Protein: HEAT repeat domain-containing protein
Amino acid sequence: MKIPLDVLSKIASALNRRDEVPNQELAKEIIADEDRQAIQILIEHLSHKNKAIQNDCIKVIYEIGESRPDLIVSYFEIFLEMLGSKNNRLQWGVMTALNYIAHLKPQETFHHLPRILETAEKGSVITRDHAINIIITLANTEKYRTEAFALLREQLLGSPINQFAMYAERTVPVVDKDNKEQFIKILETRMQDLQKESQKKRVEKIIRKLS
Structure:
């Protein structure tokens, strides 16, 4: 059964809900129906004057993107434009969406990495987390592996202490014989900055695995 065109009546704020369950349920309905018209309505309302509506719409959109990136990939340029939003929730939401579709648009994503990284530098922790994932996705493609890993190296060397162990763990799948020595050196260098024993153990585990 197709979702009716009053799709906005199903988002959390319209139902006076403070939780995300309605948005998640709506995403599942849209995925099940492959309802591109509903997605278009959500996209159009990302610029709504009501921030609650913006926030709900981007939540539904990236929930869709996590499972079915093909359904939102055509909105790549719109997500990119909205990285400049003053609404922090919307900003990290579109970065999340870009993360989920990066593997479908590697060339375009690589071309716009400067903008993505600039946004990550100024944005929230979540914004940065997804930007790192985007670089890792590109480093996992043969064409962009070398340049993406070089950017990843810069991010690892300058990342916040609390995020470093997580970023290092996420990087492991794109470490190969050509960059392994360089990666281990980064781990050893940043190890000196880590203050929590749990963080050090996570990094030490990676070094043991690669050595």
Remarks:
- The chain is about 65% helix and 0% strand.
